[in-house]
Amino acid sequence: MKTFRRFLTFATPLRHYLPEYIIYTIIGVVFGLVNFVMLIPILDSIFKQNNITVITPKPSFNWEDPVKYVSGTFDHYYTSYAANGSPLHALVFVCVIIGCITLVANIAKYMGTRTLIRMRMTVLERMRNALYKKLMGQSLSFYHTRQKGDILSVVTNDVQEVEWTIVNSIQILLRDPLVIIGTFIILFVMSAKLTLFTIVFFPISGFLVSYISKKLKQKGYFSQEMLGKILNVSEESLGAVRVIQGFNGQTFMQRKFEQVNRQFTKVSRALFNQRELASPISEILGIFIVVALIIYGGSLILGGDSELSGSKFIAYLGLYSQILQPAKNISSAITGLQKGLVAGERIFKVLDEPEMIVEKPNAQSIDSFQSDIHYNNISFKYEQSNVLHNIDLKIEKGKMVALVGRSGSGKSTMADLLPRFYDVTEGKITIDGKDVRDLKLHDLRDLMGTVSQEAILFNDSIFNNIAFGQPDAKPGDVINAAKIANAHEFIHQMEQGYETNIGDRGMKLSGGQRQRLTIARAIFKNPPILILDEATSALDTESEKLVQEALENLMKSRTTIVIAHRLSTIQYADEIIVLEKGEIVERGTHDELLAKQGTYKKLVEMQEFK
Ligand SMILES: Nc1ncnc2c1ncn2[C@@H]1O[C@H](COP(=O)(O)OP(=O)(O)OP(=O)(O)O)[C@@H](O)[C@H]1O
User: Fold this and answer.
1) Residues paired with 391 in a beta bridge
2) Structural domain of residue 110, as residue ranges?
3) Of 174, 318, 482, 591, which residue has the fewest beta carbons closer than 10 angstroms?
4) Model's pTM, two decimal places?
5) pLDDT digits (tens, 9 = 90+) for 156-191
6) 452 CA distance to ligand 1 middle (Å)
7) For this UniProt entry, what's an example GO CC term (predicted)?
8) In what helix (H) or strand (E) does residue 134 lie, and over which residues does it extend?
9) Are residues 116 and 198 in the same domain?
């Protein structure tokens, strides 16, 4: 229920649609029911052919009883047609009225549904936007503990499920009880005795439906989880087709996929079987009630013991059958709702996930970098144990500092702390003396540009990739950035130049070209601080030269932190920091460190040996 109520809060801003919907629904329901009441004069015209000779007088309008006025007017015209013409005239008159009523009822129903569609789509749009915003604001550690497929499953399947179940159910629960109540009122007016007789059966069906729906919820969870797993395997495989084929892993991956797919199918089958049970159960119960009604009502009429005539009784049965569909809808909606609530809970779980990196309410602005960055005695851990211990490092404006060390020594982690992808566990990092945790996140990240080892690009044009996030960028600035990054030439040679779409993750480009685009992106951003996860190791000599040159252009007159894998490229760094198991073990210039004959020297020798 809590999830349902929370879901309604998403719809709350749209509650102004509700009166409109209710008005349309009432019109639709009332006119729909009146159509059934019309059965009575139809049957009368057919079966009582010549009986009508007296024309009933036309009533005058009375606000206190408009129903009487409408039915009186109808009777007046009906009897006039029957008495002055023939029963056929009366029949045609009734049919024309039925046609008009049907038209109004259906237009109202359609307008009501349109109103609800507007509401429904807007609610789902808001929900997806909220999810995306939440996901983009989450720290990287959020993504370490989750698989992409699961997250994608929430954004797509769970939202879809909510649409089909919760929203559909709301639609049904808003409309169909009205139909049932309206029908019952008319039924009571027609025959209180018969109607009371049928009401006894309703609690029985209610009990059965709630029993089924409880069982469904558990299965619903499982099914959505399995769907997430299918997405995980698919997503992973799509990103690794090259490896799967190269290592002849198709059969292995196929089995893995088939296994989760089989589990999903099994759970879903059971789930759907059970869900579908709700509808036949209520139909069977409904028919039982109608049969009981025919026997009971029939015996009353045949015994001359009823206020109903034969034609009224048939109309009564017709009207009664109108309750069955909405009752079936309500029971399906209640059972369907369980599956939707499961999906809703999964959505809210993501939305409620606490954000690890938050901006303080009174965060300060910073629009320039003036003097230094200081890693002030910091320690950091991802999980249990520290991966960085007591790091103290000051980087003056305009200097280039290189981080070196064996794989896993903590270089990337150190760089990730500066733009607050993670927060330090102990100590603090300051920029111009201000703790990064006290600054506005947007401002802080605006001061930095990152070029990482993995060239991360978007499935978009080259222009938009360089001017990422700035759709109003001037072409001249983008071209300039590309020129400095040694990328202009290859872009220029492409048929569509800067408008060329580079495909998923830049697949249509070579490794060196991709890397130069990421450098152009950093140049375009023109940040005072650069973080370079040295990116040239995977390139051939020619590309490496171009990329290295591009990097040197980029570093000019900026403060740079370089994560160096190739020591030859950082010889001219102002300071080299040697990390080992998360601690600074040596620091100094290239020459100073070589002279120390320590870890750095060993690292250099290892690379020369290679
Ligand atoms: N998300 C994470 N969760 C837990 N531990 C992590 C995570 N990321 C990295 N680590 C651990 O932190 C340590 C430092 O990793 P880091 O990536 O900073 O090293 P690195 O020096 O940059 O390595 P490389 O040169 O191979 O990129 C490693 O022991 C690694 O196993």
Assistant:
1) 378
2) 7-137
3) 591
4) 0.74
5) 888 888 888 777 787 788 888 888 888 888 888 888
6) 15
7) plasma membrane
8) helix 87-137
9) no
